[in-house]
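Quick one, tokens below:
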């Protein structure tokens, strides 16, 4: 089963590392096609440096069992309750849940710092499968919700979120030149419908921060201008200054493969961290965790600041000590940051509690742990 939302957790959106999903797959394949990258085996191709995984490390990796920590278990149960209510047509219950979480604002957080209102909407999207039939079934559910509660902002945002997911589903997960004309048409039509539905909600009466996450996905798909993006981000920062999902998504959109130039996302991370009403170095670290997988070594290939990341990681680990995902993600980033002391301490705390979503594979976890313990690659 494949999921449509981010997050390592972020995770997409709101865990620190998200699950691999069709949306990200479509994004990555499109980016590769647009950048002209190739996996061909031309005679001039040369391999770059690779890390050596020895036989003992492979055995250790084979014995690792993915761990689901208490925080992630709580989040999964919460999302399961949301999805169950949605499938049962308990729209009154969903409205009460969402309104309560919106009213609590940044006080309604799970023990990894993720916003409960974000996990509420993510729960609505926890489909049994990603198929046309499943999307059509959910489409009917959203239409019933909106028909029963035509003035509901929650229902509108949920439907707009659904439309963005349905748009990427229509596009498919292939390279850009493999997308059919029908796929492109549905992609554009559904994103436009989501934008038309949600834009009128922006104003002084809007209290739901997840509106902004949907709009950022729309902006990415539609290729908004820098001016429009900047206005949206400034509006969102006024709406919810500490809603860090905005920063992860905006930084992602500033990768050179999207709407940015080299160094743009790093400068954005610093700007977001420097805001007096924001989260400081905590958000800088969250952005780096989100971006680390796009580079062989994010600190060698970009101007990202390890000391600032380290400061943010320490804040996160102190604030959210129960989060295994945070500890795993911090260990990975510490190794990339060449901070063996910090990495060794984190791996000591983690032990065998390997969180699958935070690593490329078990071999990476074991190999990084070996370096932290011995200093040898």
């Amino acid at each position: 089963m494949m999921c449509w939302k981010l997050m390592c957790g972020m995770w997409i959106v709101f865990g620190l590392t998200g699950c691999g999903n069709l949306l990200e797959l479509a994004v990555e394949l499109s980016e590769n096609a647009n950048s002209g990258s190739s996996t061909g085996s031309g005679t001039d191709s040369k391999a770059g440096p690779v890390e050596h995984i020895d036989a003992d490390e492979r055995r250790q990796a084979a014995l690792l069992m993915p761990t689901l920590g208490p925080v992630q278990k709580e989040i999964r149960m919460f999302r399961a309750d949301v999805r169950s209510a949605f499938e049962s047509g308990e729209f009154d219950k969903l409205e009460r849940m969402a309104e309560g979480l919106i009213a609590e604002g940044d006080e309604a957080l799970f023990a990894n710092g993720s916003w409960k209102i974000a996990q509420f909407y993510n729960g609505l999207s926890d489909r049994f499968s990603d198929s046309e039939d499943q999307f059509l079934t959910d489409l009917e559910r959203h239409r019933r919700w909106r028909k029963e509660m035509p003035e509901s902002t929650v229902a509108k945002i949920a439907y707009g979120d659904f439309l963005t997911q349905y748009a990427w589903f229509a596009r498919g997960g292939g390279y850009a030149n493999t997308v059919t004309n029908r796929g492109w048409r549905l992609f554009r039509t559904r994103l436009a419908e989501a934008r038309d539905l949600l834009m009128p909600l922006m104003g002084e009466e809007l209290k739901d921060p997840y509106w902004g996450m949907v709009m950022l996905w729309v902006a990415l798909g539609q290729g908004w201008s820098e001016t429009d993006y900047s206005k949206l981000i400034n509006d969102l920062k006024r709406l919810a200054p500490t809603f860090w999902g905005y920063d992860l998504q905006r930084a992602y959109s500033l990768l050179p493969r999207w709407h940015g130039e080299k160094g743009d996302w790093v400068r954005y991370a610093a700007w977001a961290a420097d805001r007096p009403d924001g989260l400081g170095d905590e958000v800088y670290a969250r952005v780096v965790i989100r971006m680390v997988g796009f580079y062989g070594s994010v600190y060698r290939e970009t101007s990202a600041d390890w000391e600032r990341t380290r400061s943010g990681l320490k804040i996160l680990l102190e604030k959210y000590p129960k989060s295994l995902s945070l500890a795993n993600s911090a260990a990975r980033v510490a190794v990339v940051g060449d901070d063996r002391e910090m990495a060794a301490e984190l791996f000591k705390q983690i032990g065998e509690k390997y969180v699958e979503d935070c690593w490329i594979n078990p071999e990476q976890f074991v190999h990084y742990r070996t370096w932290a313990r011995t200093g040898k690659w």
